[in-house]
Amino acid sequence: MGRAASVARGVDFGSARATAIEGRRKRGTFEFRAAEAGNTAPCAAALPIHLAFIRRLTAPLPSIEKARRVLPSLLDIELPFPLESCAYSFLNLARTPQNDIETLAVAARTEDVAAYLNRLNQAGIDPLVLEHEAIALWRQSVEEAPLAREQNRLLIYLGDDRTGLVAGSGRGLDAATGLRQPAAELLNTQTGAAQRLALWWRAQRDRANGGDWHLAWCGPGADKPELRRAIAAALSPDGACKEITHRDPATFLARSLATGLLTGESFEGNLRQGAHAHPAATAHAQRSARGRLWALGAAALLLIGINVAWTTLLNRARDQWQRRLESEAALVAGTDRLPRGQETLAAQRALESQAAGWAAFNRTREPGAEQLLAQLLRVAQPYGITFHNLVIRPNSLILNGTAEDWNDGERLAAAFTGDGWRIELDRSDAGADERVHFSLKGEQ
Amino acid sequence: MSARPFQWFPTALVIALAIAALAFSVRTLRDTPSRIAQIERRKADWQRLHEAAQRVAADRATLAETTKNGPALNIADWMRTQRPTWTAEVREKERERISENWSVQRAQVTIPNVNLADFGTTLDALAAQNPPWRAAEISISAVESGAGRGRVSLLLEGVVKTTATAP
Fold first, then answer.
1. Residues of A with CB below 8 A from B54's CB?
2. In whole angstroms, how large is the CA radius of gyration of chain B?
């Protein structure tokens, strides 16, 4: 679920005080200012790290959808309490180079969520979103001070009533731990809190195989340099790390929560779920579901419309050609009483029945045999050729005759060579009549 | 029991609509090639008939032009009047029907002894008629009576009116 608001509040809620910041979109950036009392803009709060659970999980499946189904079981194994008693979310599902699906799981016991919401409500705060504190802190930290992919960061939140440590790298958040103690109390050696945190960080460094680590400070206590130095020394007694302090550290968490609500990112990890969901968030979810339903309905109707239009178009084209075909067939056949579906056949039969008559007619328009006879007589006359028998058609001739000269028959044949004529000349030696007898066959 | 009875109805309706749309699309996709093929077939048939109709129309126009002066003259009568000295035998042969009103008539003309120069002039005269008589075949054989003469058998073709008994 995601919703981008134009004005939103983030509340860093502590036992001693609540820091409320109003965030506002302005020309592609966000502007922040202290929220006044009575501000009714949508609000986001964070569930302290010590009340929640965070773990990076890997599902050995290539499909994100399949991974979504098995991730709750994987989370259940990791949780120290039953999954059924928890609110949980899986963030940033992504495929690893090994083709597995990796996610950051956040969870909190429902009773802890309910108790914290109750505390917030008693303070007059009804958050639309309750985000895991570590998620909000890390998001703002990398936004304000981006990390290179191989860089590691320990983000330390020094609150009035709690302390939180978040470890991660340029690839993302990896782990978080928190204590229900303010920063000043960490240095009390009797509690052993600083030692526990130091051990936790060492474990994180070992898990990350050393690497380049630096400390980033935030929270209301982070603007006290002596406190930072003392805690840094307690966490890392063997050597100094590079350090940064986020600007305006007291409002750091509140700014992050407001930004998450403005961009809609914080809805993804909202731990205010089920019976504890904010009515506005529930209504928004229902509106979104209805919107998706209507969008699906509209898409279905559009698809049906396209199908109907396409089918109608094809049918119209087919009917149009059918009408033209019937009209042409009627013209060819000379009748409009043609059996439906057999127009072409009937027209073709009509054409075939008329074909012989039209062929005969067209033949009468071509030159007849008289032209060939005239040509033959014209060529033969100068040579004194005599014909005995002669059969002439417009495109063939057969003749027998005699000539005075051996070559006269050839001269006659030569007159017809070309124009596609194939001529065969047959001659015999002069006989008693002293004339050369020849026969000529020609075909065009 | 649900607080709002039948609240599932819009969802079910939209899902049914989506399934119907998909089924319709599958059917449309499946039927489209055959429908396009039907259209192409009709188009090709029409094209073929259209070309044939154009040929027939051109032939009809030519026939009308050819017969605007009526049918070819009666060949037997013409021989008797125009070549009275010839002992020509004229025999009508088969007819080929062109249209309801017109046919091609074949006539066999036999002339036992004719001067070939006169015969040539006669053929030209017949070919110059409108409509013409065209020589489909000419057979000439020499006769004893002299050079330049022969026995002629001639097959003529001309356009005449279709008679009731024509095929």
1. none
2. 36
- In chain B, residues with a C-beta closer than 8 Å to the C-beta of A365 are 62, 66
Report the percentage of chain A scoring pLDDT > 90: 52
Please name the residues between 352 and 371 in chain A that touch chain B, using a CB distance below 8 Å: 354, 356-358, 360-366, 368-370
Tell me which of B4, B34, B43, B98 to substitute to probe the interface with A (most A C-beta atoms closer than 10 Å): B98
Interface of B with A in 13-42 (CB under 8 A): 13-14, 17-18, 20-22, 24-25, 28, 31-32, 35-36, 38-39, 42
Touching A: B residues 75-114, CB under 8 Å: 96-99, 102-104
Does any CB of chain A come closer than 8 Å to the CB of residue B62?
A: yes
Parallel, antiparallel or unpaired: strands A7-13 and A43-47 = parallel
Reported in sequence order, the residue ranges of A86-187 that DSSP labels E, i.e. its strands, are 86-95, 101-109, 129-132, 152-158, 163-169, 172-179
Which value, in Å, is the radius of gyration of the alpha carbons in chain A?
50
pLDDT: is A42 or A417 the higher one? A42
For residue B6, pLDDT beyond 70: yes
Structure tokens at B44: 């090709």
Mutate to test the interface with B, among A352, A358, A404 (most CBs of B within 10 A): A358
Of A348, A386, A391, the CB nearest to B147: A386
Q: C-alpha B50: how far from its chain's center?
A: 14
In single-letter form, the type of residue at position B12 comes to A
Q: What are the tokens at A179?
A: 């204590």
Minimal CA separation from A382 to chain B, in Å? 13
pLDDT digits (tens, 9 = 90+) for A235-292: 886 767 789 999 999 999 999 999 999 998 888 899 999 899 998 888 877 888 889 9
CA B14 to chain A, closest CA, distance in angstroms equals 5
pLDDT digits (tens, 9 = 90+) for A346-375: 888 888 888 888 888 888 888 889 888 888
- Is the pLDDT reported for residue A334 higher than 90? no
Strand-pair category, A43-47 with A129-132: parallel
Closest C-alpha among A90, A86, A186, A176 to residue A137: A176
Adjacent-strand bridge partners of B156: B107, B135
Distance CA B165, CA A84 (A): 104
- Kindly tell me if the per-residue pLDDT of B21 is higher than 90: yes
Q: Phi and psi (nearest 5°) for A60? A: -80, 55
Query: What is the average pLDDT value for chain B, to the nearest integer?
Result: 88
Tens digits of residue pLDDT in A403-434: 888 888 888 888 877 778 888 999 887 777 78
A47's CB contacts (< 8 A; 6+ apart) are A108, A112, A113, A116, A130, A131, A132, A133, A271
Nearest CB among A293, A321, A377 relative to B10 is that of A293
Q: What value does the mean pLDDT take over residues A303-322? A: 95
Tell me whether 0.85 is exceeded by the ipTM: no
